[in-house]
Known about the structure:
It contains ten helices and seven strands. The protein is of the alpha+beta class.
Amino acid sequence: MAYAISGRCGSIVISLSNSSLGAFNRCRRYWKYRYLDKWEPEQESADLKYGTAFHAAMAAYWTGERNTEELVRIAFKEKHPQWMEETLRIMIKTYVVRWEDQDIGFTPLLVEDKQRIDVDGVTVTVVFDALVRSSEGKILLIEHKTTRSGDISTGGAWYLRKLTDTQTKIYAFAAAKLGFPVDAVVYDVIRRPTFKRKDNEEEVTNKPDAFLQRHVMKYSSDTLDSCIKDVKAAHKLMLYCEQTGTFDRNGDSCQAFNRECEYYQECWGKE
């Protein structure tokens, strides 16, 4: 989930989250509209709804629930489109079959747990998906990642992007501050099927590796320290932009993710 770093500039509190940091680096103006002006999109994206529902089921999974129907019920707490409910049902069932035996020896330490720590005067808020201890005594940081990417294998494009991930480095740093030095980070990747065939469930259950992967990452203390420096530097830039009213536009990002930015008309419509 997201982490946040808050600092005060005048009467404004700047919050830095995984998504807001990406937005800030992509386009300062987009960041202003979304995170300072709090202009929410009119509709929540299907990807976000899917990820939220799956995370709810996983929170129950890591606290000991292994009954697939109960996990599905938790994911369906809110009404979703039929295609999404069908997909969630199949993926939750497959997830339990794929990982249950391996996860039996894990003891949960923190699950969907929100913590606040201080980093050199900056308040850092983190929400752990799951922090667990293995039967060998190793502390593992579990981070669920739902994606539509077609290739989630080790060495694939999605995996390579995760090598530069900031979020889990912040989490590992925070966990150590809380007395849980992380031995490894586990990217628990859940690929959302497109289901172009009729035998939807068979497609997933026959090839679970194409839809469920776990990538193990280990971070040195130098890597974590460098990440903290980057995050603090970004935070200072955010404070500067708010204080000076400097929010430059990045036209190259207006059509990012194969769709027009939701703030395009506000940003460019009068020109």
